[in-house]
Amino acid sequence: MRRQLSQQEIDAVFQGGDAGAQGKPTAVPFDFSRLDRIPKSQIRAVHLLHENFSRNLAGSLSAYLRAYVNMNLVSLEQISYAEFLEGLASPTFIAYVGLRPYDGTAVMELSPGLVYAFVEMLLGGGGKPAVSLQRKVTEIEKHLMHSVLRVILQDLSEAWKGVTDIRFAVQSLADEPQVLHVLSPAEAVVAIAIEVRVGYTTGMINLAIPSIFIKRLRHMFERLRRVHRAESKRQDQLHMAQLLAAVNLDLEVRLDGSTILTRDLLDLRPGDVLMLNHPLNREAIGLVNGSPKFRGDVRVVDDISGFNVSGAFQDE
Fold it and tell me: Which residue of 17, 114, 259, 271 is 20 to 30 Å from 77, comparing CA positions?
């Protein structure tokens, strides 16, 4: 059946086409240089991982340097590698770290003041703040720092074992942030800033891990999050019930009565009758370790008083 459109319907069609042409396009240009964002759940997992790393490393360095070391995770954010480099001092101490057996490189920077404090302690000093040194770390100091880096990277590998087995190893050292271009300036990295206090010195350890590397391990983070202990919880509950079965509990039955004056209580003598104002048909309350648990009434059977439970106690 053919139907002829009215002039009003034809006008509406053309008006709709004009409105669509004047509106915003549905296609949005894609910026290939944008950050490859990591899900927030995975960022939280990485944050927790490096919190544990900071805590464990503080103990390891304290034992290695024989001095109290305090570490605090200051920030963890996803930025471009160029932004990470802009926040570094010049000159500084940079270690390029391989992520074996994976194909990737992380960047670790230690503030110069922190490096000089570590070197002084390794040589038997007390870590007192020296005059501000505006120089590069010498080759001898770099050689001494290799032992400190081994301690740091060992604890970092241990922290990541919960996700996957990674061996962090030093590939090379540098003094200037722009010397080696191991990562593209626009590449996204997860920047981790850790404040370190040792002796009289406070410095920073900055770590940059490529975001694409962490994103490739997404399935491992999800597997870690999905792991649950349903069977072990059931076993723990049964074990706890067995342990509690032999625990002694205090059971008492309370008859709530009226209040009396202190002088009346002090004047009580043998033979006196104390009115509780507790009707016989009112239920008594059974308490377990001082907490009300049951309702019931007091009965005497064969000259033995007992408590007949009628139900569970519920606050009104």
Answer: 114
Q: What is the pTM of this model?
A: 0.60
Query: Do residues 267 and 214 both lie within one domain?
Result: no
Among the residue ranges 36-40, 80-84, 185-189, 235-239, the one predicted with the least confidence is 36-40
Q: Supply the pLDDT for residue 22.
A: 53
Residue range 181-186: mean pLDDT, rounded: 82
Q: What is the mean pLDDT of residues 287-292?
A: 82
Residue 285, classified by CB atoms within 10 Å of its CB into exposed (0-12), middle (13-18) or buried (19+), is middle
The number of distinct structural domains making up the chain is 2
- What CATH number should be reported for the domain holding residue 191? 3.40.1550.10
Which of 194, 226, 258 terminates a domain? The answer is: 226
> Which residues constitute the domain of residue 156?
40-226
pLDDT of 115-126, one tens digit each? Answer: 999 998 888 877
Same domain, 266 and 183: no
pLDDT tens-digit series, residues 47-101: 999 999 999 999 999 999 888 899 999 999 999 898 999 888 888 999 999 998 8
Mean pLDDT of 220-232: 56
- Statement to judge: residues 123 and 67 lie in one domain: yes
